């Protein structure tokens, strides 16, 4: 979901170790993700005002990270300069998961229009994913790299652990991206484009991608 420049071999070798996030203090990583997605088409759509978006995205990503910890896994680095949030095969966030993650309090921070658009976006993406991927799969909820660290291969570094695990278990992976330039990045990691979609009522365009185990 993030535009990532093509890494060089040297930059990949310089990357710090990727670790699984187990900390309860997710705010530093949420702030990194907020910076990375500040101009993301899906977040611009839900909150067109940049000042409001800059203010509320950290809280939103804190919820996303906690959801990832509950229904899947979150990989990051010691510096918290990027993250890959995955939902594990067969896992879906229920009411209790959403409550624990703080999603039920999130509307208090957002304007009504943002809450409505966020709900429409989530419902649309979930429906599309169920239609395209009825089989169990890993779902890449978000991949983010701090803008100051982009172009160094960190995105590849962050998704590699789950891709390796999926290959060993013979499991598929799925994602959506709202940035056309991301297609090449994911194709290098074995993803194939399933289709191009546009959210109704003037919403953004996005691409769905699937990866079979190798």
UniProtKB/TrEMBL annotation:
The N-acetyltransferase domain covers 63-213
Q: Which domain of life is it from?
A: Bacteria
State the CDD domains in the record.
Answer: NAT_SF
Q: Does the keyword Transferase apply?
A: yes
Gene Ontology MF terms in the entry: acyltransferase activity, transferring groups other than amino-acyl groups
Q: Which InterPro entries does the entry mention?
A: Acyl_CoA_acyltransferase, GNAT_dom, Trichothecene_AcTrans
Entry's Gene3D superfamilies? 3.40.630.30
UniProt keywords (A-Z) are: Transferase
Return the SUPFAM superfamilies for the record. Answer: Acyl-CoA N-acyltransferases (Nat) (SSF55729)
Pfam families listed in its UniProt record: Acetyltransf_1 (PF00583)
PANTHER family per the record?
GNAT FAMILY ACETYLTRANSFERASE, N-ACETYLTRANSFERASE DOMAIN-CONTAINING PROTEIN
Protein's name according to its UniProt entry = GNAT family N-acetyltransferase
């Amino acid at each position: 979901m993030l535009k990532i420049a093509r890494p060089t071999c040297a930059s990949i070798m310089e990357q710090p170790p990727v670790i699984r996030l187990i900390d309860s203090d997710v705010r530093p990583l949420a702030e990194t993700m907020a910076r990375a997605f500040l101009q993301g088409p899906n977040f611009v759509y839900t909150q067109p005002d940049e000042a409001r978006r800059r203010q509320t995205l950290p809280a939103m990503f804190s919820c996303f990270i906690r959801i990832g910890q509950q229904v899947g896994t979150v990989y990051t680095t010691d510096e918290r300069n990027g993250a890959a949030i995955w939902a594990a095969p067969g896992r879906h966030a229920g009411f209790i998961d959403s409550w624990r993650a703080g999603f039920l309090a999130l509307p208090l921070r957002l304007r009504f229009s943002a809450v409505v658009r966020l709900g429409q976006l989530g419902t649309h993406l979930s429906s599309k994913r169920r239609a395209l991927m009825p089989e169990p799969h890993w779902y890449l909820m978000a991949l983010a790299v701090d803008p100051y660290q982009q172009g160094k291969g960190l995105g590849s570094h962050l998704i590699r652990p789950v891709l390796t695990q999926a290959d060993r278990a013979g499991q598929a992976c799925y994602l959506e991206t709202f940035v056309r330039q991301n297609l090449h990045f994911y194709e290098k990691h074995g993803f194939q484009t399933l289709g191009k979609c546009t959210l109704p009522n003037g919403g953004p365009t996005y691409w769905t991608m699937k990866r079979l185990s190798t």
